[in-house]
Amino acid sequence: MSASRSKVLVVGMDGLRFDRLLALDAPVLAGLMSTGAYGTSKLPYGEAGTPRTESPGEVVPKTPEPGDGGRVIRSRTDSGPGWSSIATGVWPDKHGVVDNGFESPQFQKFPDFLSRATTARPGLTASAFFSWAALAEHGTFGPAIDHRFVLDGYAVGWAAADKQVAEAAERHLAEEDPDATFVYLGDTDEVAHDLGPHCPEYAAALQAQDAYLGRLLDAVRARPSYPGERWTVLVTTDHGHVDEGGHGGTSDEERTVFVIAGRLGEDLGGRPLAAPRLVDVGPTALAALGVPVDPAWDLDGTPLDL
Ligand SMILES: [Zn+2]
User: What average pLDDT does the chain have?
Assistant: First the structure.
């Protein structure tokens, strides 16, 4: 019997507060947690005393802060820095994205984990699906990725864009043969900016995204080749929100992020992961694909112990 083929699916849900996820009814994520492994950590950055970002793509001017010794990472708790950290496995002082302006990204030096995988393993195929077009425009998830599906959530509307992104990813997982896939959903963030994370609309956005995740997992399980595949699934977010909605600053509500990991068909016991960080997502995906992390890459993250 041949070795199983390793596959990875990473799903990002923008601005999803873990405490709200636990409080709300999200059956697919709850199931992934109960048979997987998960935990939270706090982003090692945030800008105190600055205006909070009011929409996902808005750039708020930064206020410089004096360093206090050690490695000081100067960045807002915004989407650009968060997704860039998830993609690259390094923090904003290395990848260069410190707000949603993407002024000096270092994605040539620190490419995303999908591009790393395709470079390390010629023949491996990677795909990415976004409703936040900036992630493609600025190369956060770069052109080396075999298949990129990009929508503009601002133009299409975030809920509608997420639906199209999910449907495209579902079809791709069912009909194509990607080894590593990233899917971004953004409506949770949009709703939290408008109304905060404590309203019924936020619950509805989360539940829509939870249902999309369920459809992606169903598509994977229905693949004819699924019995010979070993799927690692990771779900994460880029930042939280203050209770009234908005982020960028240093509060626990803005800095708390989560990683949920699962292996389809295996029971990892619903056990806690000790402070999984955004920079660990890429290395974990690479490890699951059998791609060793090269120390020369200078990554900040390490593979999670699943
Ligand atoms: Zn965000």
Answer: 93
